[in-house]
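Q: Can someone sanity-check these two? First one:
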Amino acid sequence: MSGTRFDRRLSKILLHAAEVFYDKGYAGASMRDLSRASGMSLSGLYYYFESKEKLLYLIQKETFTTIVERLRERLDTASDPEQRIRIFILNHLEYFLVNRKAMKVLSHEDNTLTNGFGAEVAAIKRAYYQICVGLLDDFQRERKLEGSGRLAVLSLFGMMNWIYTWYNPRVDADAEEIAGRMGDIFLQGVSAAAPRRKSRKKKSVN
């Protein structure tokens, strides 16, 4: 089987695996469930993937690797700090609204992977997080803003990642419009935030 054909086959298997994990949860899913969903024999599935943890690892690795690669390509087309943040948000939402089942699996099984699997995926996620921190740093530097970049970025991820719990394609806007609105909320919040100062207690006068 050629590399291209294998990659296509692997993507389909991971898609089916994500659906099983979505429906049954990682703990409740068995290799037999995954075999039936993917159309592979149980022995064939074990030949390529020694455990369901390997499949979960590959789902997470492919997801975050794909997102980062697409993001880097898009960021090369823009230099304005605000526009680059908006590109980040749109890139994230476009992928996850198309892959909502995988998104739920990623959110619910965030700490399931162990040993080398968990460490490798965590490194990719840290790199993704650092890209967003860097984009926000550039924006704050250009606008001469202060404030906690970490708090702002984590809040942005919370807003974007929670979308799988409420998004309904029949009534909600598309990824581009939602990304625009989330970008407005995020950037306006960052721009309005001022560094908090510790209050000093006044000495009582007797």
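And here is the second, same format, sequence then tokens:
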Amino acid sequence: MKGLLDKSILKVLVYFDMFQYPVSIDEIRFFIDQKAGEDEIADALKHMILDQRVYRIDKFYTLRNNFKLIERRIKGNIYAGNLLKKAYAIAAFLYKFPYVRGIGISGSLSKNFADEDADIDFFVITKKNRLWLARTAMHMFKKLTFLVGKQDWFCMNYYVDEDALLIEERNMFTAMELITLLPACGNGVMGRFFDVNEWARDYYPRYEELNHSSKRLTHDVWYKRMIEWLLNNKLGDSLDNYFLRLTSRRWKKKEENFKLNVKGNRMGLRTGKHYAKPNPRFFQEKILMLYQSKLNDYDITEAMAAS
């Protein structure tokens, strides 16, 4: 049992080590893939520290004996706390766009870390068959944010509509994104989204303990209701399909031309009638391969995906 617990602890430390992020004992207990008490985890960590497999610096645990990582984390946590206030305010604004039904905060900010170059990433749920109308309107607005240098505050990266709440890629990376996703506002659909994706418990048993429902159900403003009323017809159907085709063509060209974003990463988007999401080949799969490689160093095997 102790050997299994050691491996489970190492899996948490290895995952966060990829992002140079030391973790507390509470975080280890939260992200561990088995249910274990704090005393059990503390005892296991004590022996792992004696064996010099793990280092404790201040109240954090890490695979690297480097105090600068602790300084980086603390500074990032403070900056994230301030940025989260902006993120919730921006989410409330984005919810006013037509056909938006729920918004969550994702990315590093949802994990309570940010640096001065951090983006504010959003996960968006839209009304069924109106994703592309909503996304196009929101991204037209985003173009205006470039004029004032605030485009990094409006990274709407991942869209699904009410007909595609189940996340297709079931692996440790997407499970981590699910368990850390912060519901910001919505009409209740965020709660349904988390319920549908209970498969994440296979990776993080504490997923089921979370209250994922948005604490603040958000009311639609009058002009949002009016625009939706005007487009709840065949015209709206045609426009949604048109914007899907247009966006798919544009992103296909970007991938074919190996376009990079400002941070030097490959640009890619998977598109469908009910979703618009980053191409997993350009980041998600890279993280999973690196994670498996690091686990191999500790003779730990991990299922990268669940069927």
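A (reply): Looked at the second one. The domain at 2-65 is CATH 1.10.10.10 (Arc Repressor Mutant, subunit A). The chain has two domains: 2-65, 84-286.
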